[in-house]
Every structure is written in structure tokens, then in C-alpha cells.
Write a structure and sequence with these properties.
Layout lengths: L2 H24 L10 E6 L14 H7 L7 E3 L5 E3 L2 E6 L5 E6 L13 H12 L14 E8 L2 E6 L6 H5 L9 H4 L17 E7 L3 E6 L12 E6 L3 H10 L4 E2 L7 H5 L4 E16 L9 H10 L2 H8 L4 E3 L21 H10 L7 E7 L6 H13 L4 E7 L1 H7 L11 E7 L5 H9 L17 H12 L3 H18 L2 E14 L2 E2 L2 E2 L5 E2 L4 E2 L3
Parallel strand pairs: 1-10, 1-11, 14-15, 14-16
Antiparallel strand pairs: 2-3, 4-5, 5-7, 6-7, 8-9, 9-10, 11-17, 12-16, 12-17, 13-17, 18-21, 19-20
Helix pairs in contact: 1-6, 1-9, 1-11, 8-10, 13-14, 14-15
């Protein structure tokens, strides 16, 4: 049986599982969702909603309803005020001044002011806290409230993407009262923010509930309560939507869109994405220390077959570590499918008979993630590489692949990365710079190239866009040759909503926002 046939068989099997779940659920009584509650079903549980510990899109989707940041990025990429009403910089862009919105209260009644923001940002960059996304604030040296509502950031040197980085969901502002007495390694369970909803409870492994913030400074939400449920199996999410248990679901597998579109009560929503799906190698572990091995495995995987067989036009083969909508993107590929070349490179590297490896993958976090891992396993087998698949629940998976280099025993891992600031600094520096190795960064494969580091460092402080583009183009060329990942594909996102719900924002940055949601009267 060829790889394409095996993929088709697995897709059909997944569809049969969904039908079985549907009929089993249809045999018993269904939970009635009140009209004042909107239920959104997502594929993975947030690892944390404490801004310093957030690392995933599920955390961003849930968290942004409760905790806000200084700047918001619109669907078209433009930056608009959120908790900061305005901002300006000095001549060399080393001092940034932000005017903080007045008349805003945290959910505990504490006022928002410049010092409240400063306390949060200081915690975010505190090396003892060890926020995985501290790199977002670049060369910020001093964070000071210079007036009741005036915040000043002083940088050691210019930092080109500072405004887009400040729009990131993970740089959220919580009540300073919640931070009082908090040790560096303490974490916030239920954040107290300024957002349109107040977080009420977190039932681990099941759901998060929140209720409307009656004192919200902006337009009041029209729906009283939000409920986010965590359902890794796509088939179960789909059935929940069809039966009305869920009002909206995220990450619909492409092969299920026709079924949902045929339901007169459901709308299928397609949206672009900035996410690249890849298989990262542990570059400090044999045999993946050798770039010839890493290149070989890139040639061994038929990415176009994956895209055509599994995603029905809703993905495309990656030609760089970041998608083309991101500033600094430069096409470097793709690696063409060439199993003969893969075998040649493996023989040259000293593995003419292949080798065995462990490939970690999540289940339910990304559309078709487990099926993709199985297909890659088959393709690697065709060039003599035996990959043993291992999966874990999402939050455990993130922790396991965030171990320091001396404890990381994994060979390779499937992950996705959305460059949600639309700047290559976020997509390249965060994942591929040496100083971003685990545990206090996102370079989970421990890739290191001193020339790439220099290029990425220089691009951070360069203020001329055309020069930054040249620096990123060179960095991408080197990264592509080094092959720290199997560069798979850039995925689109597919959500589905019951058609009695309006106002949901399906953001290209992969958030599903219910701030403006409402029920449509029958």
C-alpha cells in the first residue's frame, strides 16, 4: 500500500469515527445551552493564562477576553490603541512614550495607570521570572511611569518591531494587586484584567467560564457568559456543533467542511493564517547534529502530497520558515520530494541503512496533526528511517518539549508557529536564535548558527526596512541549508459557527474573538 493510499485510508477512518460519535451522542439527552451563554469548543487547553507563562494560540484566544494589552493588531495588520491611547518615540527610537487610557478599571476595582502597566512589563522581562516570550521586549532597559498616565520605555538600542510586539496577546496587563507578594516562580491561575469578560472558573481538562464585565470601558458585550471547552478530538467538536452543544468550534479538518456546509444551521468560515507547521530536530542529539541527515529527511517527505491529500487546498507547502504575509519573508525552497537524494545523503552521513528515531506529535492541537505524523512516519520508512510515534496531551507536550538541552531526550517533534506580529523577528529570532534555547525560549531543537545569530541580532536594531529585508533573506537562506526542521506547510484555519450567532471575529492571527458576538433571534 502506497503512502497516498494509507493517507486516504486514515482520513476515511477518522470520518467513520466522527459518525460513530454522532450517533452515540444522538441516543441520549443533550445538554441545553442557555441563550445567555456562548460556548466555543477548541482543540487544546491553554497551558496557562498568566501572561508570563502563556505560549500557545489557545491561551491567546481564551486570555484576550479577560486581559488586554497596550496595542491591538487589526485583521489587516494595522496597529490601533487598546490600553495605550497613543505613543511616540524620540529621534533615534530608543525612548518610547505611551499615554495610558484613563478611566479604566481592573476587574477587582483597581485603577489602570502607568505604574500598573510598568509593574507588569517589569515582571515580563525579569530574568528570574523567565518568561518564554521575554524576547518580545527586545532591548528594553528601563520601564518607568513618568506621570500618572504616561509610561516610558528606554531601550539600549533601537528595536524595530517593538510596536508590533506590544500588540502580542502574551504581553497582557493584570491588576497590580494580583502581583503583590508574588514570587518569581509563582503563577497566576485566574488573571484579573481589564477585558470585557471576567474569568469565573477553570475546570481543568474541561472548560473555562467567564461572565460579562459590567464596568468595561468600551462597548458592552451583548452575550452575558462565555464558555470555552477543550475537546482534542475534531470529531467530538464537530458533533458538539451539530447538536448545539457548542455554538462555534475551531480547527475544523478540511475533509469535514462539506458535511458541515450542508447543514443549514452551520456556517463554515475560512481564514488565512500565519502559521507554519514543521518537524523540529533536536540538533544537539545524534544523528541530527549532522545537517546532511536533516536535509535528507526534508527530501524524504512529500509535502505536496500531504497538502493535496489532507488539506483540500487550505494549506500550501512551506518555502521559508515564515509565511509570505510576514515582513522579511524570502522564498528559499521548498525542498522537493526526492527519496533517492534522501538515501544518498543518509549514506554520505554514514547511515546507508537508515536509523531509528522518536517523533513526538500532538493530537488535536492542529488540524490533522496525528494523521500528518503517521504519513511522515510512512515516508521516512521508505528511505530506511524508522520513526516511533509518541503523543501527549497538549499542555504536557509543551512542557516535555521545553526541557533544557541536557535533559531533552526527544529526537524530533511536530509543532506549529504563527508569526502573529507579522514581523520575521518573531518567527526567526524566537525559534532559531541560540539564546532562545529551552527552557527560557522557544528554540526547542537547540539549533545554533553564529552567522544566523548575527543576522537576526542586526535585523532587530536596524530601522531601515529594506536593509532588514536583506538581512532576513540571508538568514533564511542559511537556515534552509542547515535544515533544523522538516519544513512542512503553511496551514489556513477553518472554523465553524451555528448560524444563530453573529459578530465573532475570525482573526488571521488565529484568535476567535467573541467581544462583539450576539445571538440572532429566531
Amino acid at each position: 500500500m502506497g503512502t497516498a493510499t494509507r493517507i486516504a485510508t486514515r482520513v476515511a477512518a477518522a470520518s467513520m469515527v466522527m459518525l460513530a460519535v454522532f450517533f452515540m451522542m444522538g441516543c441520549g439527552p443533550q445538554e441545553t445551552v442557555e441563550r445567555d451563554t456562548l460556548t466555543i469548543s477548541i482543540g487544546a487547553e491553554p497551558e496557562s493564562l498568566d501572561p508570563v507563562n502563556m505560549t500557545s494560540a489557545p491561551a491567546a484566544t481564551v486570555g484576550e477576553h479577560v486581559v488586554e494589552r497596550l496595542i491591538y493588531m487589526e485583521e489587516d495588520g494595522s496597529l490601533v490603541p487598546m490600553l495605550a491611547e497613543s505613543w511616540s518615540a524620540n529621534a533615534d527610537s530608543t525612548v518610547w512614550t505611551f499615554e495610558i487610557r484613563q478611566g479604566v478599571q481592573f476587574h477587582d476595582g483597581q485603577p489602570l495607570n502607568a505604574e500598573a502597566v510598568a509593574v507588569n512589563l517589569r515582571r515580563f522581562v525579569d530574568p528570574e521570572v523567565g518568561a518564554a516570550y521575554a524576547f518580545l521586549l527586545g532591548s528594553v532597559q528601563e520601564i518607568e511611569a513618568v506621570g500618572e498616565y504616561t509610561l516610558q520605555l528606554t531601550l539600549a538600542e533601537p528595536f524595530a518591531p517593538i510596536l508590533s510586539h506590544l500588540s502580542h496577546s502574551f504581553i497582557g496587563i493584570v491588576s497590580p494587586a494580583q502581583l503583590e507578594g508574588l514570587a518569581a516562580d509563582d503563577t497566576i491561575e485566574i488573571p484579573v484584567g481589564t477585558g470585557p469578560y471576567i474569568m469565573d472558573s477553570w475546570n481543568r481538562g474541561d472548560s473555562i467560564t467567564m461572565s460579562v464585565n459590567e464596568n468595561y470601558y468600551g462597548a458592552a458585550p451583548q452575550i452575558e457568559n462565555l464558555r470555552f471547552t477543550f475537546v482534542p478530538e475534531a470529531s467530538a467538536r464537530i458533533v458538539a456543533l451539530e447538536t448545539g452543544e457548542a455554538d462555534a468550534i475551531m480547527a475544523v479538518p478540511p475533509q469535514d467542511t462539506d458535511r458541515l456546509a450542508a447543514d443549514p444551521n452551520i456556517d463554515v468560515v475560512y481564514q488565512t493564517s500565519v502559521r507554519t507547521i514543521y518537524i523540529g530536530f533536536n540538533s544537539q542529539r545524534e544523528p541530527f547534529t549532522d545537517p546532511l541527515v536533516r536535509q535528507a529527511l526534508n527530501y524524504a517527505v512529500d509535502k505536496q502530497l500531504l497538502v493535496d491529500s489532507l488539506f483540500d487546498g487550505n494549506a500550501f507547502v512551506a518555502d521559508a520558515p515564515v509565511v509570505d504575509a510576514v515582513f522579511g519573508h524570502a522564498s528559499a525552497g521548498p525542498y522537493a520530494y526526492n527519496p533517492d537524494r534522501a538515501r544518498e545523503l543518509l549514506a554520505e552521513a554514514g547511515y546507508p541503512d537508515g536509523f531509528s528515531m522518536r517523533l513526538l506529535h500532538p493530537t488535536g492541537r492542529y488540524p490533522m496533526d496525528a494523521t500528518v505524523a503517521e504519513a511522515v512516519q510512512d515516508m521516512l520508512a521508505e528511505v530506511g528511517v524508522t520513526a516511533t510515534l509518541e503523543t501527549q496531551e497538549w499542555t504536557s507536550y509543551l512542557s516535555y518539549t521545553a526541557q533544557p538541552v541536557d535533559q531533552a531526550t526527544y529526537d524530533a517533534f511536530l509543532l506549529g508557529w504563527g508569526t502573529v506580529t507579522l514581523d520575521s523577528d518573531y518567527g526567526l529570532y524566537a525559534l532559531l536564535h541560540t539564546n532562545q534555547w529551552n527552557p527560557n525560549g522557544n528554540n526547542r531543537g537547540f539549533y545554533s548558527n553564529s552567522r544566523v545569530d548575527t543576522l537576526l541580532d542586526t535585523a532587530r536594531v536596524e530601522t531601515e526596512p529594506s536593509v532588514r529585508e536583506e538581512l532576513y533573506a540571508e538568514a533564511i537562506e542559511l537556515i534552509w541549508e542547515d535544515a533544523p526542521w522538516i519544513f512542512l506547510y503553511n496551514e489556513g484555519q477553518i472554523n465553524a459557527v451555528r448560524n444563530n450567532v453573529g459578530g465573532l471575529i475570525h482573526h488571521p492571527l488565529e484568535n476567535l474573538s467573541a467581544w462583539d458576538a450576539y445571538f440572532i433571534q429566531d
